[in-house]
Amino acid sequence: MSKIAVVPGSFDPITMGHLDIIKRASTIFDEVKVVVLNNSSKNPLFTVEERMGLISEVTESIPNVDVDTFSGLLIDYSVEVKANAIIRGLRAVSDFEYEMQITSMNRFLNENIETLFMISNNQYSFLSSSIVKEVAKYGGRITGLVPPAVEEALKSKYK
C-alpha cells in the first residue's frame, strides 16, 4: 500500500521554502500531492492554472510529486486521494497556533489521516509568498527566494 501525502497551500507563488518542504516530503512518502487551494475569498496574483503550471515546472525533477487543485475541505480531498498524511510547513512558533486549530478540526472530521509538521529550513524561516510578492512588486531582489521560473513569472506580472 502506497503512502500518500498531501501538501496543501495557496502557493501564490511557490517559494524555495515551499519547495524545500515538498522535496523533503518526497523522500518520506511514495507519492506527494501538492494541492493548490482554490480560495475565492483571496485575491491571488496568479491564477490557479498559473500556480499549478509553476509548481509542475519546478517539481518536474521529483518523480513522485503530482500537482492538483481543490476547493472545499482539505480532509475530503485527502480521503478522495487515499492520503495517509497532510504535511504542513512551520516557519515560526507563530504559525503553530493556527496550524494546531486546523489540524484539530481535520482530526475531528477524520481521525484516520495524520497531519505532520515540518519545520522550515532556517534559511527560509522568514519567507512567505506575500513578502516575496511585495519585494518583487517594487523591483527588489528575489533571487534565491523563489525558483528561477517563478522569479521570471513575477517580473512579468509586475512589468
- The named CATH superfamily: HUPs
Roughly how many Å is the radius of gyration? Answer: 15 Å
Strand/helix succession: EHEHEHEHEHH
CATH architecture: 3-Layer(aba) Sandwich
Number of domains: 1
Strands side by side in the biggest sheet: 3-2-1-4-5
Number of helical runs? 6
Helix content: 40-55%
Summing up helix and strand content along with how strands pair, one would put the structural category as: alpha/beta
Low-confidence stretches: none
Biggest pleated-sheet summary: 5 strands, parallel
Description:
Residues 7-134 form the Cytidyltransferase-like domain. Keywords: ATP-binding, Coenzyme A biosynthesis, Cytoplasm, Magnesium, Nucleotide-binding, Nucleotidyltransferase, Transferase. The record marks 18 as: Transition state stabilizer. Homohexamer. Its EC number is 2.7.7.3. With 159 residues, the protein is an alpha/beta fold. It has one domain: HUPs (Rossmann fold). Helices cover 41% and strands 19% of the residues. It has six helices and five strands. It has helices at 16-26, 48-58, 74-80, 93-109, 129-137, 148-157; strands at residues 4-9, 31-37, 65-70, 85-90, 114-119. Strand 2, helix 2 (48-58) and strand 3 (65-70) form a beta-alpha-beta unit. It starts with a strand and ends with a helix. The model has no long low-confidence stretch (mean pLDDT 94).
List the helices and strands and how they pair.
Elements: E1 4-9, H1 16-26, E2 31-37, H2 48-58, E3 65-70, H3 74-80, E4 85-90, H4 93-109, E5 114-119, H5 129-137, H6 148-157
Parallel strand pairs: 1-2, 1-4, 2-3, 4-5
